[in-house]
Amino acid sequence: MAEDSNPQDQLAAEAAALDGYFSDTPLEPEPNYPPLDEQFNRCVVISNLPKVNEAKYEKLTKVVTKLVGRVGALAAYDGVPDYAGFLMPKGADGATTGCAFVEYASVGEAKKAVEVLNEYKFDKNHVLRVTPYERARQLADTPEEYKAPEPEPHKERPNTMEWLEDSCQRDQFAIRHGKETAVFWNDGRGAPVVDYAGEREKKQGVNWCDFYVQWSPKGSYFATLVPQKGVILWGGKTYEKLGRFAAPGVDFVFFSPQENYMMTNNNNRSDPKAIKIFSVHTGKLLRAFPLYPKDFLNPKLSKEEAMQVPPPPFQWSHDDKYLARMGKDLISVFETPTMKLLDKRSIACDGICEFQFCPKKNLLAYWAPEHKNQPAHVDLIELPSRKKLRQKNLFNVSKCSMVWQESGEYLGVKVTRHTKSKKTLYNNLELFRVNEPGIPVEMLDIKDAVMAFQWEPQGSRFAVVHAENPAATKVNVSFYDMFQVREPEKKKGKKGPKQEKQITPEVNKVEMLEGKGCNCIFWSPAGRTIILASLGDQGSGTLEFYDVDSKALTVKEHYRSNQVLWDPSGRTVASIVSQPVGGGHFKFAMDNGYILWTFQGKQLYQQSFEAFYQFQWRPRDKILTKTEIAEVSKNIKKYEKQFNAFDIAKKKKIRLEETRGKRRDRSEFRATLARLKEWRTRQKQERMELLNGYDSEDDDNFDVKEVVIETVLNTKEELIY
């Protein structure tokens, strides 16, 4: 009977039996769910993984999970023990589909995974592609049929090299003073002429620049620094705005030699992105670095001592292919444009203190002191092969400093050595001939203390400032040549064939200037001329223009000058008294400004300012080879005629411009005089009638007498015996 009863009746009977066991309070459960995250910004998609069957699924999962776990911690949720932040889906056949989904614990770790693992070589047949999940969803929504977007209207980019087409072959320079920023033309003959001084910005009620400015290495771009925001690039004939680069706090800008990249630095030790690398053409941020590499600072240093350690600088290779920075016992070389480590590893350099790129080759030079029973040494390393081309071991070394010649043919290393007691220091120069087979090295002993060492640009000569005591006020300046020239011997008797000079690759002392009061030396970019300057608070401001070939010396003075800058052509040089933008140096207020000189020491122009911050010549690329320069020098007479004709025409144009007002006044005077003469001629008849027929303009109505008056100006008597 019970089996045949209705199920509803059975439920009703059970409810009646349980009546009284339940509470009358309504049931409203509130489970504690985790917050719903709909952003997916912590998730990435890894593609191009190997496709494996079910037997190898677990092994591949472990390998990939270990790889992604190195980047950061994977996501985990309380109460969900089976979820590990990793999912590798399978297809209908049970094999993997070649992709995986990874969820990290933070957004920063997900971004780091994209940077680190993208294009990672998983094995010899698979290179991983890592994409943010949001980007993958956008790609999934891409229509199968491609529809070309509407092209944007063409906007011609300003010609950043137009200034080089100047018919007068003038150079340019920029200055910062007060709240003003201006760019000037300079022809090396007279006063500079303003090209642009921010007139467009002044109409908008803003200053063109309130901080420092920087030209790019070829002069194509003009960068103005805005510490609150970043860097602005300008270019073209009218200095149009070409791009903005976000870099808050920036106080330093460094362009790559070929102007493809730009580095900004805010010198903030606590900022993990203190140094930023941008692409100049796209404006994209390629990579950011902290101010110091990992483990660079010694943890045993106090806070005050750590503040005294300067951050290691970045350096570009000559062709923009590499960017390098020194770390602790290593050099990290990054490839452009990916900004990833060359061969995924740094170059081991135990104890490295300094490195420099060759100006014309992908060659690294570095020196390291004595370290772990190894002598101090200077090494030359070729990139990208990392091959060590030359190593020079040094002993009893206290310090080294390296100076490359501009064309990269020679490397000079100033070595400060000490005796065994370490109480006495002495110097010598190690000179590397980089272009010769085996890179031979010559040692030049200098008994005195060396204060300055500079190569002649594009030449084989160099200058050394030295004295017995580093604090001496009077020093000697010696000039050396990497080649020795021997004149042929003149033989008496019959004339034979003309003998050529013998040139041998041997360091040769050319001459020495004694008793000079300089502390700095500045070679002209054209070579031959050098300025021996006494700069800074302890200097006298003396500038000695010395021609190394003709031995001509001209002495000038610019009191309190703290900078000397040659223009790229070597025609004009500027001596400068400047102060920092942020500091109020009242002692410079009466002397701030600049003076322009010819390379022979003749003053061209002087300008003073109450607050003067910066002077910079606009660089220009050197396109002539040594052979072409020699050809121009050979045919200088032909070019001299062209330049003289141009100078005469220019002077005539200037003279006509200067006398335009005088000529206009003269023409107006002559026209007035002619009008008055014509008016007087018309009145002649009336005038004669009033004078009873007398014509005052008729010479016959006058008696003419000639009177000769002689005046003795001086007398001189000579007695002739």
| C-alpha geometry | extended
Structure summary, number of beta strands: 45
Strand percentage = 25-35%
The value of Rg in angstroms is 40 Å
Give the terminus-to-terminus CA distance.
181 Å
Query: Helical proportion?
Result: 10-25%
Question: Given the helix and strand composition, which structural class is it?
Answer: alpha+beta
* Main sheet: strands, sense, barrel: 5 strands, antiparallel
Low-confidence regions: none
Query: Averaged pLDDT, please?
Result: 88
Number of helices: 10
Descriptive overview:
- The model has no long low-confidence stretch (mean pLDDT 88).
- The chain has ten helices and 45 strands.
- It has 721 residues and is an alpha+beta fold.
- It is extended, with a radius of gyration of 40 Å.
Short characterization:
This protein has 10 helices and 45 strands. It has 721 residues and is α+β, with helices and mostly antiparallel strands.
Descriptors:
alpha+beta, five-stranded antiparallel β-sheet, four-stranded antiparallel β-sheet, 45 strands
Task: Give the topology.
Elements: H1 7-17, E1 43-47, H2 57-71, E2 86-87, E3 99-103, H3 107-117, E4 121-123, E5 126-127, E6 129-132, H4 133-140, E7 171-177, E8 180-186, E9 193-196, H5 199-203, E10 213-215, E11 222-226, E12 230-235, E13 240-246, E14 252-255, E15 261-265, E16 275-279, E17 285-289, H6 303-307, E18 314-316, E19 322-327, E20 330-335, E21 340-341, E22 347-348, E23 354-357, E24 363-368, E25 376-382, E26 388-394, E27 397-404, E28 410-418, E29 425-433, E30 441-446, E31 449-455, E32 461-467, E33 475-481, E34 484-486, E35 502-504, E36 508-516, E37 520-523, E38 529-533, E39 542-547, E40 553-557, E41 563-566, E42 572-577, E43 593-598, E44 603-608, E45 612-617, H7 626-634, H8 636-658, H9 660-682, H10 684-690
Antiparallel strand pairs: 1-3, 1-6, 2-3, 4-5, 7-8, 7-45, 8-9, 10-11, 11-12, 12-13, 14-15, 15-16, 16-17, 18-19, 19-20, 20-21, 20-22, 23-24, 24-25, 25-26, 27-28, 28-29, 29-30, 31-32, 32-33, 33-36, 34-35, 37-38, 38-39, 39-40, 41-42, 42-43, 43-44
